[in-house]
Specification:
This protein is of the alpha+beta class. The protein is built from 17 helices and 21 strands.
Length: about 625
């Protein structure tokens, strides 16, 4: 035996007020949507019909809660439609087969909007006369406990339309003041194409006299820009730096985007104001523009996108995806026009919103060609645009990591090498893309292992002088898989440079992980390390450095050994290489050895601070 679901209207209303709708004030939006759909349905029957919506606040002298009369001159309802659409949750007049071909003209599609009124009142009175009916005026009285009755009205309407009477619940009177109703009606229906009037205290005013500002005619482009920026300031409370027209045939979307005066976090999703068929849908829509477009906030109207049940966002479907792509193209055209017509403005925009511009350049080859040489990059010789870099350096060299750049920046700059720090978001990908888009461009990754190739070689006499140091260093560093070389480079204050290729860096990381892991994982890492190839790391001594020159002449082999160990550890630390356990032990032993040697000199009566032969080791 089949049974029917029993629906608790109280429970449904609680669901609406606490989970579906953002505030009780949406009852004004729902009534506006119903009135809008009714007017559009009548316009299909009578193409010359213009339509009007009236709100009349009737405040009582005895201090009892006020009553709001909400009326429209739309298509109205027949008795059959009253039972079907006012008393059946989930049923919608917009689903009638006779109107299926015109469904996109209507806003409401879920048949639950009228229930929002029960968030602010306990009883609804709907008085309606259908333009398709027999001319009778009918009354539907619904109560929050789920009961209702229908009867013929004793006060017939003289023309088709609908009136909704709402008597405020005592705890909801704040939603029935002239100020609140004015704000809510303008907020939700300010762009509707037919008049909305509010009458209160004997005074009547129109709440939506102007329509969408981006569709108005202006005397000049500067007047249009000024008016739109003023509109953006009114809507968002922000002084934007520019405005961009938006248009998409997919979803029938149009509007305006405003360029933010300061760059948000690149992970931030901007919240946009979105209208559906000129009714406010959401002030926090996040999925309308591409992710890279976080440098703008927009106001748009969509006529053919599908709203969610709460009518506060859009469903993710093919139409929304196509609209998002088309709106992204509008932003692309704006940036392309800037590159051609006002490069300085583009530079200012890049300075404010570089991440967004870079993301767009990665996504669009034509835009990449326009902006890539305007983009600034940090280099070992200072910040410069890629155009300035390429004018002085035919080969673009970069390090993909911040540690890699720190390891080479000081020494490379002293040699006159210009290396780009491509560790910032998108920079490495942008540089790697350069030869694929610009045919004559040469791009090479750079690491500390490439630096010694630019250093000055020693003379024969210098090689003989440093031979003892070289032999001692090779013996000391052999357990660390580190080779040794002596060259001359700048700056002279840098005594040593540690360098390794990617394989060597990987091996160091694996060794540290093995030391910190259990036996099982350590065994796995052992196998990985055994399979790793690549050149050994290298420690390059700088003969321009006075400490290295004096060290090469030291006769005490223990002092030389201790000094080499300390210079090795110092080079690792300067290169931002984490120390493994063996290297930490070397550092501790070296420090203790230096302290012991210094204390011994003091005990022997030498000058505190050491003699001339010890200055290079402090």
């Amino acid at each position: 035996m089949d049974h029917r679901f029993q629906v608790s209207l109280r429970g449904v209303i609680d669901l609406l007020s606490h989970h579906l709708y953002s505030s009780p004030g949406v009852y004004v939006r729902e009534l506006l949507q119903n009135a809008t759909d009714a007017i559009r349905a009548r316009q299909h029957m009578e193409p010359g019909h213009t339509g009007i919506v009236r709100l009349e606040l009737m405040e009582k002298q005895d201090g009892s809660p006020p009553t709001l009369l909400f009326s429209d001159d739309g298509v109205g309802l027949t008795e059959d439609e009253i039972h079907r659409f006012l008393a059946t949750i989930g049923e919608s007049s917009k689903r009638e087969e006779s109107l299926a071909a015109r469904r996109n003209d209507f806003i409401g599609q879920f048949g639950i909007g009228l229930l929002s009124c029960f968030m602010v009142c306990d009883e609804l009175l709907v008085v309606t006369r259908s333009a398709r009916g027999d001319g009778r005026t009918l009354e539907w009285r619904g109560r929050h406990d789920g009961t209702y009755d229908v009867r013929q009205s004793e006060h017939p309407l003289d023309r088709p339309g609908t009136q909704v009477f709402l008597m405020a619940r005592a705890d909801m009177t704040e939603w029935f003041t002239p100020e609140k109703l004015r704000h809510l009606a303008k907020h939700y229906g300010g762009l509707l194409p037919f008049p909305i009037q509010l009458t209160s205290g004997g005074h009547t005013e129109r709440l939506n006299p102007d329509g969408p500002p981006w569709r108005r005619e202006y005397d000049s482009a500067s007047d249009r820009r000024k008016a739109l920026l003023a509109y953006g300031r009114e809507v968002f409370g922000t002084d934007f730096i520019d405005c961009i027209p938006l248009r998409s045939t997919a979803g029938d979307v149009d509007g305006v985007a405003f360029v933010l005066p300061a760059s948000p976090h690149f992970n931030a999703r901007q919240k946009h104001r979105v209208y559906l068929k000129h009714m406010l849908l959401s002030e926090s829509a996040e999925n309308l523009l591409p992710e890279w477009a976080f440098f703008v906030k927009c106001v748009v109207n969509a006529n053919a996108l599908r709203p969610t049940a709460s009518r506060e966002s859009f469903y993710e479907d093919e139409s929304l995806a196509l609209a998002r792509e088309a709106l992204g193209q509008s932003l692309r055209r704006y940036l392309v026009d800037l590159a051609h017509e006002d490069p300085r403005a583009l530079q200012r925009l890049i300075a404010l919103h570089g991440l967004s511009v870079k993301a767009l350049a990665l996504d669009d080859d034509d835009f990449y060609k326009l902006v890539i040489h305007w983009l600034p990059f940090e280099t070992s010789l200072g910040v410069m645009t890629l155009a300035d870099y390429r004018r002085a350096h035919p080969v673009v060299r970069y390090t993909p990591t911040l540690d890699g750049f720190r390891q080479v920046a000081q020494v490379a700059g002293a040699q006159g090498l210009c290396i780009i720090n491509a560790a910032y978001t998108h920079d490495a990908a942008l540089l790697e893309k350069l030869p694929h888009v610009v045919p004559d461009a040469q791009v090479e990754p750079f690491s500390a292992a490439d630096l010694p190739q630019s250093f000055e070689e020693l003379s024969l006499d210098e090689r003989e002088a440093v031979f003892p140091l070289l032999r001692m260093a090779e013996r000391v560093l052999a357990p660390f898989r580190c080779g040794v070389v002596v060259k001359k480079f700048f700056p002279a204050e840098v005594p040593t440079l540690y360098s390794s290729d990617a394989e060597g860096t990987f091996r160091r990381d694996a060794e540290r992980a093995r030391e910190e892991s259990d036996d099982l994982y350590a065994g796995v890492l052992e196998g990985v390390m055994a399979a790793a190839s690549g050149e050994p790391a290298q420690l390059c001594f700088n003969l321009h450095n006075p400490v290295v020159r004096r060290l090469a002449a030291v006769a005490d082999r223990e002092v030389m050994k201790l000094s080499v160990e300390m210079l090795y550890v110092q080079a690792l630390l300067l290169g931002h290489h984490p120390l493994n356990a063996q290297e930490m032990a070397l550092l501790n032993q070296g420090l203790l050895g230096l302290i012991s040697a210094q204390l011994g000199r003091t005990d022997d009566g030498g000058e505190e601070g050491g003699g001339p032969g010890s200055r290079g080791f402090h």
